[in-house]
Write a structure and sequence with these properties.
Number of strands of chain A: 4
Strand content of chain A: 5-15%
Strand order of the largest sheet of chain A: 2-1-3-4
CATH topology of the largest domain in chain B: Rossmann fold
Number of strands of chain B: 13
Shape of chain B: globular
Helix content of chain B: 25-40%
Order of helices and strands of chain A: HHEHEHEHEHHHHHHHH
Structural class of chain B: alpha/beta
Oligomer: heterodimer
CATH class of the largest domain in chain B: Alpha Beta
Distance between the termini of chain A: 31 Å
Radius of gyration of chain A: 30 Å
Shape of chain A: elongated
Number of helices of chain B: 10
Number of helices of chain A: 13
Largest sheet of chain B: 6 strands, mixed
CATH superfamily of the largest domain in chain B: P-loop containing nucleotide triphosphate hydrolases
Strand content of chain B: 25-35%
Helix content of chain A: 55-70%
Number of domains of chain A: 2
Number of domains of chain B: 2
Largest interface: A-B, 32 and 36 residues
Largest sheet of chain A: 4 strands, mixed
Chain lengths: 368, 287
């Protein structure tokens, strides 16, 4: 009989399991291909997206004398361009087809100036397509009214008020973000969640094939297995997210902060992978469970693409702080001070997800 | 010198309301192979789970290699080898990689997988992925894996179940070699013939209770029926006489049957472990 048996250290056991997990990952062509294609595809898409923001609204105008008046009034002002048309029909066609970038058309009747001078009622047509938001339609109504006042030689009915504007929180007004910039957090987050599925599949395979049972009848404990999964999953997600961030030049001047944000994100998705992997019985059910987490987690990332669409409940989603921190750091140059509340929120959610994920996986392993 | 390798004392375990193992006690000595026999759901696998530290008994005590399981599970696990019924190998890794991975869990430095692979006749497939292996090859690799740490105690759960005769024979040979080396072996199986061949003693378990534990020979002698079966022909009629050897006057009856003329065949019969199991459990193993 063996007198003395060599004994692996806890770190040695965890390292052995991590090494084995990376071997298993690299041997699964599906996940390797998905990961590589994902990285290349996302980087390519990013660089193909426009990096400029054109916020100018072109207004098409028809009506004798009005166009020239408007042109003079808006000369030198940012945001409004005036395009003159010879007839209402030509203007209607231009608005319908979006020719010359015309978003809105104002068709003044031929006797508009005379009618205003004579204080006679008249009608101005505001032409918009269905895509034009209500705010812009209201603005056009106000513009027509002001033109009418100006041409009639009247002053405004009340003395103009002085106004003070107080912006609560970070004022993003004027900091327009291009579509490419908006895609940045989405790209980084998508890479993280793809790795969430990979890890979930690896965990599900360990449970379903009962390889974990073989591990825990050696000197390896269940806690060693769980630690190895957390480290392997976080590393997989983190490394790939960093590669993508480098490829889309998103580390920038604040690289340590970005790396911290992505590391927290990788830790968070790994926690969700523990839950998805515990319940997954095969590839399809792993995808199902992963999607169950993936879709809600993606909502804040999509909300960045469509500002103003997010409801307040979106802030309660665990990934909200993560997306907010990425947007702030990459698009607006936020530093540690601005990112800290978001990071704290992510950290809190990550702890909650780990408590749930680890306890579920531990129970699963012990029940095998 | 033999010592006690496994000592189980009054151990019970229940899954909810189902009593899987009910107050069982037994011992296995070093170099001894104990056949643990019972039908599906009898409590064999639950017993192995408790003996390998996977689950904790509700009551009773387990000592392996002189160490109590409830306090020294990790030290025990460093010195045992477990071969599961499920072929829980890493299919995307090669045979060699599977063994090397396990050697790392035991902290073995400079592990060489080839001698073990040679023992189970897989040396030519060392660098092939397990996904390409047949059932028999996987089982042989499982056997090799549980020997990675040169264990003092082996737990083998249905190691030859569903295998071809060549693979079964290879695994039986390894079990005998390990037993000869001094390892204690706890072998669960459905196969009574295998248990008879490999085990020094056998234990019958049914519905969580240990029914009997003894050597196969003793069980057959004490609980089985020995007989002589004589077939003879008289004209066109073939008759068969079964003479129990334990009955009085058995010798005279055999002499009469043989001397009556028309003798065709004489067979001696002894009870099988299967017969004895049915006698104790009131059911066959495969029911």
């Amino acid at each position: 009989m063996t007198a003395t048996t060599p004994r692996a250290s806890r770190a040695g056991i965890v390292a052995a399991i991590i090494r084995k997990d990376f071997t298993a990952f690299t041997r699964d062509w599906f996940f390797v291909v998905i990961s590589i294609i994902g990285l290349v595809f996302f980087a390519l898409i990013f660089w193909l997206l426009p990096n400029t923001v054109d916020e100018t609204i072109t207004i098409g105008v028809t009506g004798p004398g009005i166009g020239e008046f408007l042109e003079q009034s808006t000369t030198g002002s940012d945001g409004i361009a005036v395009k003159l048309y010879s007839s209402e029909d030509a203007l209607t066609t231009a608005v319908e087809k979006g020719d010359d970038g015309v978003a809105v058309g104002l068709a003044f009747p031929p006797d508009f100036v005379e009618s205003m001078a004579a204080r006679q009622p008249t009608t101005v047509s505001v032409l918009v397509t269905a895509e034009v938001p209500g705010e812009l339609r209201d603005a056009m109504d106000s513009l027509v009214r002001e033109i009418a006042y100006a041409l009639a030689g009247d002053t405004l009915p009340v003395t103009e008020l002085s106004q003070n504007e107080y912006v609560l929180g970070t004022d993003r007004s004027g900091d327009q973000v291009s579509l490419r910039e908006k895609m940045r957090p989405l790209m980084a987050f998508v890479v993280l969640v793809i790795e969430m599925m990979t890890l979930a599949a690896l965990i599900a395979a360990e449970i379903q094939q009962r390889t974990v049972t073989a591990i825990v009848t050696t000197p390896a404990r269940v806690s060693d297995f769980l630690t190895a999964k957390v480290i392997a999953g976080t590393l997989l997600a983190f490394v790939q997210a960093v590669i993508l961030l480098i490829a889309i030049r998103s580390l920038g001047a604040n690289a340590p902060l970005m790396v911290t944000i992505v590391l927290l994100g990788a830790l968070m998705v790994t926690a969700f992978a523990l839950i998805a992997g515990s319940y997954g019985r095969d590839f399809i059910s792993v995808v199902f469970w992963s999607m169950l987490f993936l879709i809600p987690l993606m909502i804040p990332a999509f909300a960045v693409l469509f500002p103003g669409t997010a409801s307040s409940w979106v802030k309660a989603i665990p990934s909200y702080g993560l997306i907010n921190a990425i947007v702030g750091t990459t698009s607006y140059g936020d530093g540690w001070a601005e990112a800290l509340p978001n990071l704290a929120m992510v950290a809190a959610w990550t702890v909650v997800a780990y408590v749930i994920g680890l306890s579920i996986l531990k129970r699963k392993v012990e029940a095998l | 010198m033999t010592t006690t390798a496994i000592k189980v004392n009054g151990v019970s375990f229940a899954y909810g309301d189902t009593q899987a193992v009910d107050d069982i006690s037994f011992e296995v000595a070093t170099g001894e192979t104990l056949g643990f026999l019972g039908p599906n759901g009898a409590g064999k696998s639950t017993t192995i789970k408790m003996l390998t530290g996977l689950i904790t008994p509700d009551s009773g005590s387990i000592t392996v290699l002189g160490m109590p399981m409830d306090t020294d599970a990790i030290d025990i696990q460093a010195r045992i080898g477990v071969c599961f019924e499920e072929k829980n190998l890493y299919a995307n890794m090669t045979a060699k990689e599977n063994l090397v991975f396990y050697s790392r869990l035991f902290g073995i430095k400079g592990f060489d997988a080839m001698p073990l692979l040679r023992r189970v006749d897989l040396v030519d497939r060392a660098d092939d992925r397990v996904s390409s292996f047949s059932k028999g090859m996987r089982q042989r690799l499982m056997m090799a894996r549980c020997l990675v740490n040169q264990p003092d105690v082996l737990f083998l759960d249905e190691p030859t179940d569903g295998l071809d005769p060549v693979s079964s024979q290879a695994i039986r040979a390894v079990i005998q070699e390990e037993s000869a080396r001094g390892a204690a072996v706890l072998l669960t199986t459905h196969d009574m013939l295998e248990a008879d061949k490999l085990s020094n003693r056998v234990a019958f378990i049914n519905e969580g209770k240990l029914l009997v534990l003894d050597t196969p020979e003793n069980l057959k002698l004490e609980h089985g029926q020995r007989a002589v079966r004589v077939r003879s022909r008289a004209g066109d009629q073939v008759s068969e006489t079964v003479i129990p050897l334990d009955e009085a006057g058995a010798g005279d009856r055999i002499k009469d049957a043989v001397g009556a003329g028309g003798l065709m065949t004489i067979h001696t019969e002894e009870a099988t472990l299967e017969d004895i199991f049915i006698k104790f459990a009131g059911r066959a193993l495969d029911t």
